[in-house]
Amino acid sequence: MAVDNKNIYMNIYLVSLVMVLMVIGIVYRLINIQYVEGDELRQKAKDNTVKKEDIPANRGNIYSSDGSLLATSIPNYTIRFDAIASKQEDFEKNIKPLSDSLSVMMGKPSSYFEVLLRTGRANKNRYVFITRGLSYTQYMRIKGFPLFSMGANRGGMITEQKTIREHPIGKIAQRTIGYERINDDKTITRVGIEGAFSQYLSGTDGHRMMQRMSRSHYKPINDENEVEPKDGKDVVSTIDVYIQDIAHHALLKQLEYYEADHGCVIVMETATGAIKAISNLGRSDTGNYYETVNYAVVEKHEPGSTFKLASLLALLQDKKADTSSVYDTHEGAVSFYRRQVRDSKRGGYGKISLGRGIEVSSNTVITQAVNEAYKDNPRQFTNYLHKIGMDRPLGIALKGEGVPYIPKPGTKGWSGIALPWMAFGYGLSVTPLQTLTLYNAVANNGEMVKPIFVSEVREFNKPIEVFEKQVINPQIASPEVIAKVQAVLGNVVKKGTGRKLYSPNFSMAGKTGTAQVNYGGGKGKDMYYASSFAGYFPAVNPKYSCIVVIHKPNRAKSYYGADVAGPVFKRIAQKIFTDVPSTKEIRNIDGVIKAQADDYNSYYTEAQKNTSIMPNVKGMYVMDAIPLLENMGLKVVSKGVGRVKKQSIVEGQVIEKNQTIVLELS
Predict the structure, then answer these.
(1) Is 89 exposed, middle or buried (0-12, 13-18, 19+ CB in 10 A)?
(2) With the C-alpha atoms ordered 441, 446, 452, 458, is the resulting torsion angle positive or negative?
(3) What's 330's DSSP letter?
(4) Shortest CA distance to 433 belongs to which of 401, 410, 405, 480?
(5) Across-strand partners of 206?
(6) Residue 492: which of 529, 532, 552, 530 has the closest Cα?
(7) pTM over 0.85
(8) 164 φ, ψ to 5°?
(9) CA triplet 268, 273, 276: central angle to 5 degrees?
(10) 3-state secondary structure of 566
(11) Tens digits of per-residue pLDDT, 420-429?
């Protein structure tokens, strides 16, 4: 019996010992958790329930030169509901009016929302999805709904905000304005002004804490740890929305008619180099045209005859020839190292001057002139091209500018035919913007300025950085040479290859270009034409320079620069300067002439003062009617799309500045 009692006591002691050890272990573990591992474990728990989330800063706005919004960041809201945040009394009191309000806004039955909200409360769902994609106005509206108006803690409304980039004027100039794209590897690609001026447009992100509500859903915790984001600065571009609209539609119309592959147009302010319009349109598989590639800036190609301007400048500046120097076109064909150069006119032009040769775009004249002048020292010719910057990028702010190629003696690619081929724009490559910069220098009396796309950066509507005119070359040629070249370019339109573009009501100057592309394959299917026109307007005291390049027009219709690209140039010049009642002279009430049509500064000013009679715009496309009427000082309201079928102010009625006219469209 004593032995049994002893065994019982031993078992009790053992059990007690085990229990004591367990208690000691538990106490040790509690102490260890509390004082040793406590911070780490608390952090892990917090990480599992609370996380830090960045609040992206709004990018700054991009404006046109006239203050129109080109790109802006718009807040976008998602609304959810914490179904157990509100008291039962508040919930029951407001559930029906809240459901009714949501029904009116969302277009779904009130019963749908009531069931949704009650089910969420029954299931203790703290993250019930209501809607997404709300604008700021819609967000402010829903914020005032019953129950939601009581705030996040009492009403249970959960708001998630993100920003999206919008382009209020649509896709016009989209490639130059730019965009941002998040890549698969989470890096961000930005192009155009968005990319070039991202250091200004990007703000400083804020952050806030988010509480985990379910496996993958979090709601924001509004506390003292929240740091508000700082929005980016605004950028004012040089783009003029009115000129941009004209250029875009003029290019689009021509691309569609000629079924071309792609094209571009640039309009530059002569004195400053400010880009007032730039359009790049490429054809999709569906046959529609979109802003895809910035052809004007990145696409370098053989320019063809528009490059003859550089050759003429070199000849005159180096005193190798004069515009009166005479050359024999040899019945339209000359040979260099058994390679022929031909004129577009069969049989040639006989013996003509250098100036006339440029006017009619004679390949035989310019190649002979350059070859005879520089064959013993071709480096002198390429040195002049270097002087005027044709062999290097312009260094513009936008990324991706094409690097021009100009062959030079002693380098790979130089041969016996390199010099004459360069003379008429082959065997070298430049971008449309680089070609335009040269023509703009001639229009600007020899001063070459860098193209600029942004005029200033603003913060809180105050300029913090202004981008002034940048001079690349103060004088690309002597004033005498510039004057002669200006006269030749004016004659191209009056009596040369651009004579179809001539109008007695407004003046232009420039040069046509028709270049074969991929001509190495002869007349094979890979060869096509690039049609171009580069110049400026008005011809006297020019205000704008412009280049139009259209690739791969339908050859069955035409492919010459004067036919394909020239009309785009003319339409832009015409609409900018002559969208007023057409007259050749402006008279006062006594019949005294106050301005002639060839004196553009005074003519345009006087024309604006005399637009007091309402014209008939019925049948006109709205894109033509609106700028015409706005130039007359009217405020235009249009209803519908297409052509004008009715105007609220009848034809012949006297109008006043800032008077409103309503156009009804078909």
Answers:
(1) exposed
(2) negative
(3) G
(4) 401
(5) 55
(6) 532
(7) no
(8) -125, 150
(9) 35
(10) helix
(11) 999 999 999 9
